């Protein structure tokens, strides 16, 4: 293996992890060279997917996971006019916004978005 690669490895590792807090001066110098961490540039989380899920039933279409890259996990719920839940769907969505009671024909639609942790749209 090339010696220059081996000598550069400790510098590279200090960018990712500072176990004992001894890399403070190096971290400050590197922060000017690398102002954003990789996690800030590429935000990825896993989201639950389900295209069709009726109340009190398991997911009937599109069950699985998606990877939200600079996106959000979403849960959509469609209610009948009388307020009873008719359908739920989950997935990844780029421009997600929390909305309540969007009228769609004789239904009302609610969206919830989250980015807090993997599979966060299972909870909502």
TrEMBL record:
User: What Gene3D superfamilies does the entry give?
Assistant: CD59 (2.10.60.10)
Keywords, ordered alphabetically: Signal
Taxonomy, superkingdom: Eukaryota
Note whether Signal occurs among the keywords: yes
- Domain UPAR/Ly6 intervals: 45-122
Q: Name the InterPro entries for this protein.
A: LY6_UPA_recep-like, Snake_toxin-like_sf
Which Pfam families does the protein's record reference? Answer: UPAR_LY6
Give the residue range of the signal peptide: 1-21
Entry keyword Signal = yes
Q: What is this protein called?
A: UPAR/Ly6 domain-containing protein
Task: Give the species this sequence originates from.
Answer: Rangifer tarandus platyrhynchus
